[in-house]
Amino acid sequence: MTTTVPTPEMHQTKKGNPYFFGMKVHIGAKVEHPFRVIRRQFGYVKVRFRGLMKNTAQLTTLFALSNLWMARKQLIATSLGKAVFPVNV
Question: What is the dihedral of CA 38, 40, 41, 43, to 10 degrees?
Fold first, then answer.
């Protein structure tokens, strides 16, 4: 029977520390939200292999549009002259 030594990169998160785990989940949600917007709002569910430059250009445009989509309430409030408060997305 052989024993394996775990690598330092594969260590567990701090057990019993709900603040650490909550922050990890919170950051993951903020990172994954633009991908959900691109999939659901703009219908980008399958990658079409059309060349690296075309795929890069399309993804860059989609991420720019997703930023606008997520900030739409703030942009509308600004254009109407209302006070803008940060919105938790």
Answer: 80
